[in-house]
Amino acid sequence: MNDTTFKIGLCKNNEDYKKDILNLFDSKTFRYIQKEIIIYDDYTEVLDEIEEDEFDVDLMLIDIFSDDENGIEVARLINNNQLDTDMIFISSSADNFSYGYTYNAFANLLKPVTRTALESVIKMYLKKLLSETIYLDIHKRNEDVRIPIQDIIYIESNVRKVIVHTQNKDIEYYEKLSALEAALKPYGFIRCHQSFLISYDKITSIGTTTVEMGAFQVPVSRQYKDSLKSLFESQANEKINISDSSNLKATDAKNEVKHSTTNQETKFEPLSSSEIVKMTYKAPRSRASITGISGPYTGVNINFKSDIEIIIGRDINVADFIVNLPKVSKIHCKILYNSSLDHYEIIDDSTNGTFINGENRLVKNERYILEPDTTISFGDKSVVFKLG
C-alpha cells in the first residue's frame, strides 16, 4: 500500500470554499488524511489536463452553468471517460439537479452554499470513501497477505519484525514500524510509544501508562502521552456536549408521541407488511434522493441507491446522511426507497422525533410508507427536507 494524498479540485470562481474545506480536514475526524487542494484558473485548464491525460483529482467541485460554461463539459468528460474522480455540483437553480443524476455526481449544492451544507456533503463523501475496504498488503515468507486496514487495532515492533494485531489474529513479518507509520498515517494511525502504532479511532481510554482499545492494552510513553490525551479528551468532551443537548427534550418528546397518536386529525398510521404487498406497482424513479428545502441544509441534494437502507443521523461513523443538529440523534431514522413500488419506507429511532409534512410525528420503531415529494424533519421542525 502506498502513502496517498487526497486531492480536491476547485476553480478560482469557487476559491471561497477553500478555507471551509481546509477547516473540515483539520477537524479531529479527518486530520490524519493527507490532503491537497488544487486551484484551477478556469475549466478550460481542467479540460486540457483531461485531454492530455494529466488530470489527477479525487474530488472535483464543479459550478455548472456558471459564467465559465465549460463546467458541464468537464463533468461530461469525467463521466464519459470513466475517470476515477468524484464530483459535487454547485448550481444556482434546483432545476439543474437532474445533471447530477445524468453525470453521476455524488451530490448537488444550491447557491448560496452555506458552510454547514458544504461540510455536511464533504463529510458524507469522506465517510463513504473511508468506508470502502482498503488493505495493507504484506509479503510474509512465500505468501502475500491482505489485511483490511479497518481491522487493525495496533501494530507492535519486535526487533526487526512487526506484529499486526487485529481482533481475531496477529500477523508477524519483517518490516520497519516507521515505514508503516508513514503508510498508515492517512488512515488515522499514530504513535503512542517508540514500539507501538495504534488506530486512533479505536481508543476507549487513556491511563497513566497504557492506552485501552476495548479488550486490548498498549503502553503509552511520556513522549506521546500528553498530546494523545489532549486529543482524546477534547473529542470526548465534544461527544458529551452533543449528547446532553439531544436529551434535553426527552420527556416532552414522549408526551408528543402520545398526543400525535391519539389526535384523530393528525393521526398518521404505520403500514403493516401485508398492506405494503397489496400496493399497486408504479414505474420507479431513476434514483432516490433527499433535498434540504429550509434551514441550514437548504440546497443540499444527496442521491442514494434504491432498495438499500440508509441511516440518517448525527454520528459520522454510522450515518450515511449526516445531519449535525442538536435535536438529531446519532442514529435518527432509517430510510429505504422501494423502487418496485415507488415509495419510501422509514423507521424512526430517535429521541426527539421524525416529523412528516410539518406536523405528524412518527411512532418510534414502526415502519411507515412515504410517497416521493413528502417533506420530512429530523427533531427540529424548522429544518425541512424533501424526498425525491
List the main descriptive attributes of the protein structure presented here.
single chain, 388 residues, alpha+beta, Rossmann fold, OB fold (Dihydrolipoamide Acetyltransferase, E2P), Tumour Suppressor Smad4, 3 domains, 26 strands, globular
Which helices and strands occur, and which strands form pairs?
Blueprint lengths: L5 E6 L5 H9 L9 E6 L2 H9 L7 E5 L7 H10 L5 E6 L5 H6 L4 E4 L4 H17 L3 E6 L2 E6 L3 E7 L2 E6 L3 E5 L2 H8 L4 E5 L2 E4 L5 E2 L3 E4 L2 E4 L2 H25 L3 H13 L10 H5 L10 E7 L5 E5 L5 E4 L7 E2 L10 E6 L4 E6 L5 E3 L3 E2 L5 E4 L4 E4 L5 E4 L1
Parallel strand pairs: 1-2, 1-3, 3-4, 4-5, 18-19
Antiparallel strand pairs: 5-17, 6-7, 8-9, 8-12, 9-10, 11-12, 13-14, 14-15, 16-17, 16-26, 18-20, 20-21, 21-24, 22-23, 22-25, 25-26
The level 1 CATH classification of the largest domain is Mainly Beta
Q: The CATH topology of the largest domain, please?
A: Tumour Suppressor Smad4
* Fraction of residues in β-strands: 25-35%
Tell me the number of structural domains: 3
Name the CATH architecture of the largest domain: Sandwich
Mind explaining what this structure looks like?
There is one protein chain. The chain folds into three domains: 6-131, Rossmann fold, CATH 3.40.50.2300; 135-242, Beta Barrel (OB fold (Dihydrolipoamide Acetyltransferase, E2P)), CATH 2.40.50; 250-387, Tumour Suppressor Smad4 (Sandwich). It has nine helices and 26 strands. The protein has helices spanning 17-25, 43-51, 71-80, 97-102, 115-131, 177-184, 222-246, 250-262, 273-277, and strands spanning 6-11, 35-40, 59-63, 86-91, 107-110, 135-140, 143-148, 152-158, 161-166, 170-174, 189-193, 196-199, 205-206, 210-213, 216-219, 288-294, 300-304, 310-313, 321-322, 333-338, 343-348, 354-356, 360-361, 367-370, 375-378, 384-387. The protein has an eleven-stranded mixed β-sheet, sandwiched between helices. The model is unreliable at 237-267 and 271-285 (pLDDT under 50).
